[in-house]
């Protein structure tokens, strides 16, 4: 059995968005495309998983270690979840046009966070 081959994508901020761009590069042991958007796999998370070979994961139905998450896709308007994943060093994509705010705003950095992301903001990178 050969090792799974992963690809990289670039995710940029959408209209009125902030942060990024982020390069999402899953690897063995850290390949979860973690969707925390109210249940189910959000289309943005599914697209990233399809392009990279990462594993889509519903973060509402079950939990995984922060060290297993290649990227977290969230739908937070700007208080709690918006800072939780960046605080743990996890690349974070918000589908809403949020900027650093809330009690964890100091952890929301451009190299960890991008917002206002839709399908058009996801670009496959050729190696």
Structural account:
The strands form two sheets. The chain has a five-stranded parallel sheet with strand order 4-3-5-6-7, sandwiched between helices. Strands 2-1-8 form a three-stranded antiparallel sheet, covered by helices on one side. It is globular, with a radius of gyration of 13 Å. The model has no long low-confidence stretch (mean pLDDT 93). The chain is built from two helices and eight strands, in the order βββαββαβββ. Strand 5 (69-74), helix 2 (81-87) and strand 6 (92-94) form a beta-alpha-beta unit. It is of the alpha/beta class and 127 residues long. The relative contact order is 0.26. It has one domain (8-117). It has helices at 43-52, 81-87; strands spanning 8-11, 22-24, 32-36, 55-58, 69-74, 92-94, 113-115, 122-125.
Helix run count? 2
- In N-to-C order, the SSE pattern is EEEHEEHEEE
Give the amount of beta strand, in percent: 25-35%
- How far is the first residue's CA from the last residue's CA? 23 Å
Low-confidence stretches: none
Provide the domain count. Answer: 1
Gyration radius over CA:
13 Å
Give the strand order of the largest sheet, numbering strands 1, 2, ... along the chain.
4-3-5-6-7
Compute the average pLDDT.
93
Query: What is the total tally of β strands?
Result: 8
- Describe the sheet with the most strands: 5 strands, parallel
Estimate percent helicity: 10-25%
**Structural class assignment:** alpha/beta
Shape: globular
- The oligomeric state is single chain
């Amino acid at each position: 059995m050969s090792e799974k081959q992963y690809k990289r994508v670039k995710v940029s901020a959408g209209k009125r968005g902030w942060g990024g761009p982020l390069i999402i590069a899953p690897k063995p042991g850290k390949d979860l495309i973690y969707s925390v958007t109210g249940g189910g796999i959000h289309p943005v998370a599914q697209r990233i998983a399809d392009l990279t070979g990462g594993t889509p994961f519903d973060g509402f139905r079950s939990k995984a270690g922060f060290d297993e998450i290649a990227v977290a896709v969230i739908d937070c308007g700007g208080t709690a979840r918006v800072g939780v994943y960046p605080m743990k060093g996890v690349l974070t994509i918000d589908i809403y046009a949020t900027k650093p705010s809330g009690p964890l705003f100091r952890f929301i950095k451009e190299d960890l966070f991008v917002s206002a992301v839709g399908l058009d903001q996801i670009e496959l990178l050729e190696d």
